[in-house]
Amino acid sequence: MSELAGLILAGSRGPSDPLASAEGARHRALLEVGGEPMLLRVVRALRATRGVGRLVVSIEEPGALDALPELGSLRREGILSIHKSLPSPSRSVLDVLEGLPPERPLLVTTADHALLRPEIVERFLVDAERSGADLALGLVAERLLRATFPESKRTYVPFRDDGYSGANLFLFRTAQARAAAAFWVHAERHRKRPWRLVSRFGVVSLALFLARRLDLAAAMERASRAIGTRVAAVALPFAEAAIDVDKPADLVLARELASRAQRLRSPSAANARVAGS
Questions:
Q1: What percent of the chain lies above the pLDDT cut of 90?
Q2: Which percentage of the chain shows pLDDT scores above 70?
Q3: Cβ distance 54 to 79 under 8 Å?
Q4: For the residues of 234-268, what is the DSSP string, one character each?
Q5: Do 145 and 167 form a contact (C-beta atoms < 8 A)?
Q6: Which residue has the higher pLDDT, 26 or 121?
Q7: Run of H or E residues at 62
Q8: Where are the beta strands (DSSP E) in the chain?
Q9: How many CB atoms are closer than 10 A to CB 59?
């Protein structure tokens, strides 16, 4: 795979974001987890991931990033650029894709993916490449999430084999994947008229899905035919890959997990493990 570009979607939830306001943050992407802004954590995770090169942060208020000198340094070095986000995530993704050479893959994630780690991204990229699909999307199985974080309330899409929650990781591997980005724009435009989308997938596919007769692989095959490009799902073995900061409870959980990880990495914890071995 050629070197990837990485896109971090950092658009806000409207002019007044309740979560950011409650925390006294200028922007949701700047909410602190583990003592640092979420966006910075995501940038560092991607920078530490093998195969990821230039980064793009898509945000509707670029001035909010002035508070992060580290991003300013990366911009001056030509490693990171800022994209003024469009009114929807799908339009922002398509706009960035259209500005890249057709053969350059694009990895997409979000600024609220506060627990993202290089190991998660690398596993996703390896399995996405192995799939041979034009577009790969990361998911986490409901069984794994409930066993690991029983207190976390997530949204699951039900299939015959299991339910799945999104991991906010997408890889547009080929030029053909742009058809999926265009379909996403179309889907957002018709979210208030779902019958328009049903017509693209077909009544049979819809009936099979509602009856939970489709497993994840079969659903991706039908989606590929409807969209006109090969789509594959990558089921990740990391429960935290599905924890994005969408609600106050998510922020509490992300902070708790980040704090726990920091304690495990601390010299005192390492010394304790060595002494006990």
A1: 62
A2: 85
A3: yes
A4: EE-S-GGGG----SHHHHHHHHHHHHHHHHHHSHH
A5: no
A6: 121
A7: none
A8: 4-9, 32-33, 36-37, 52-59, 80-84, 106-110, 135-141, 157-158, 163-172, 231-235
A9: 22
How many CB atoms are closer than 10 A to CB 234? 24
Instruction: Name the nearest CA neighbour of 109 among 47, 178, 32.
Output: 47
Residue for token pair 């070095």: 77
Sorted by where each begins, the domain ranges of the chain are 4-251
The residues, any chain, with a CB within 8 Å of residue 206's CB and separated by 6 or more, are 198
- Indicate the pairing of strand 52-59 with strand 135-141: unpaired
87 token code pair: 């009114």
**Chain position carrying tokens 């508070």:** 67
pLDDT tens digits for 104-122? 999 999 999 999 999 999 9
Q: Is 220 helix (H, G, I), strand (E, B) or coil?
A: helix
3-state secondary structure of 207: helix
> Quick one: pLDDT band at residue 74, thresholds 50, 70, 90?
very high
Residue 68, classed as helix, strand or coil, is coil
253 close to 242: Cβ distance less than 8 angstroms:
no
What residues does 107 pair with on adjacent strands?
6, 171
Query: CA distances (Å), 252 to each of 21, 248, 258, 261, in order?
Result: 15, 6, 10, 14
Closest by Cα among 121, 97, 131 to 230: 131
Tell me what pLDDT residue 205 has. 57
pLDDT, tens only, 208-221: 555 566 788 888 88
Farthest CA pair distance, the chain: 64
Q: Is 17 exposed, middle or buried (0-12, 13-18, 19+ CB in 10 A)?
A: middle
What is the CATH superfamily name and number for domain 4-251? Spore Coat Polysaccharide Biosynthesis Protein SpsA; Chain A (3.90.550.10)
Residue 153 · residue 128 · CB < 8 Å: no
Tokens for 258, please give them: 């980040």
- Tokens, residue 179: 């058809």
